[in-house]
Automatic annotation (TrEMBL):
Classification of source organism: Bacteria, Bacillati, Actinomycetota, Actinomycetes, Micrococcales
GO cellular component: cytoplasm
Gene source species: Cellulomonas carbonis T26
Gene symbol of the encoding locus: cmk
Protein EC: 2.7.4.25
Listed name of the protein: Cytidylate kinase
Family of this protein: Belongs to the cytidylate kinase family. Type 1 subfamily.
Sequence ranges assigned to domain Cytidylate kinase in this UniProt record: 14-235
GO molecular-function term, one example from the UniProt record: CMP kinase activity
Length: 241
């Protein structure tokens, strides 16, 4: 694999937002690996927080109890793009946080503003560490993806990107991922996971349109590798400007 790390000034922070199924996780992991940067999946932190609340028998409608639980969650995040890890109290939750049971309720934690503040602080700390010699990346920097990274968490990031794709493309991708194909029944079965969750999440953060200074990459008609190349092109252009 070609590495392009020597062409980008360091430390560098690449912030990427976008709706469900736009390709953030798969594209950002590859971009981070190609650039020798750390990779932070903030959606997985919301998933871990949701897992932790359920594990502790907490009613997700009890907003203050959820906030208190999230604040004491012993989460550790591994930022190697070749194998990101999420550990809560020493337990590897990498698989547990991807279940349909978590996907269907994660928005209830993600729309809790105090829980967002706590997770946001943790995200800022990870970004700061990755821009220092103590970080996994040795100070090279980090690719961070989520819903509010370009606007709230790292509005001063060197590169700010909105990764979009048509609703049709996003539904087809998720249907293939969850059901193995993208026929009409699979797409319908996927709709609430994609469109419904985005509608819920959009009540607290804006990730469907690019904020000022944020570059949009539309992946509707691109395959994964083409999307990675498109993002790398933006990173190279913005950091050399
Ligand atoms: N440009 C693309 N073309 C085709 N499939 C893609 C593309 N980007 C991502 N995918 C696939 O779509 C699915 C959803 O992508 P994912 O990275 O999980 O999106 P997000 O993190 O934005 O929700 C995955 O199965 C992924 O491999
Ligand atoms: N910075 C972020 C990241 C994710 N979220 C929310 C949005 C989603 O409902 C959950 C999980 O995010 P994730 O990126 O894993 O979602 P997908 O399944 O990839 O669509 O967290 C958020 O509100 N803010």
């Amino acid at each position: 694999m070609t590495t392009q790390e020597d062409h980008v000034p360091h430390p560098v922070v690449v912030a990427v937002d976008g709706p469900s199924g736009s390709g953030k996780s798969s594209v950002c992991r590859r971009v981070a690996a190609r650039l020798g940067l750390a990779y932070l999946d903030t959606g997985a932190m919301y998933r871990a927080a949701t897992w932790w609340c359920l594990e502790n028998g907490i009613d997700l409608d009890a907003t203050d109890t959820v906030t208190a639980a999230v604040e004491r969650m012993p989460l550790e995040v591994g930022v190697d793009p070749e194998g990101p890890t999420f550990t809560v109290g020493g337990r590897d939750v990498g698989e547990a946080i991807r279940t349909a049971a978590i996907s269907s309720v994660v928005s209830r934690v993600a729309t809790n503003l105090d829980a967002r503040a706590d997770l946001g602080e943790r995200q800022r700390r990870i970004i700061a560490v990755e821009c220092s010699a103590e970080g996994w990346s040795g100070g090279r920097g980090v690719v961070v993806e989520g819903r509010d990274i370009t606007t709230v968490i790292a509005p001063d990031a060197d590169v700010r990107l909105l990764l979009t794709a048509s609703e049709e493309a996003r539904l087809a991708r998720r249907a293939r991922e969850l059901h193995g194909d993208a026929d009409a029944a699979s797409v319908e079965a996927t709709r609430s996971h994609v469109v419904g969750r985005d509608a819920q999440d959009s009540t607290v953060v804006e990730f469907m349109t690019a904020a000022d200074g944020v570059v949009t990459v539309d992946s509707s008609d691109l395959d994964l590798e083409q999307t990675v190349e498109a993002v790398l092109t933006v990173v190279a252009r913005v950091t050399s400007a």
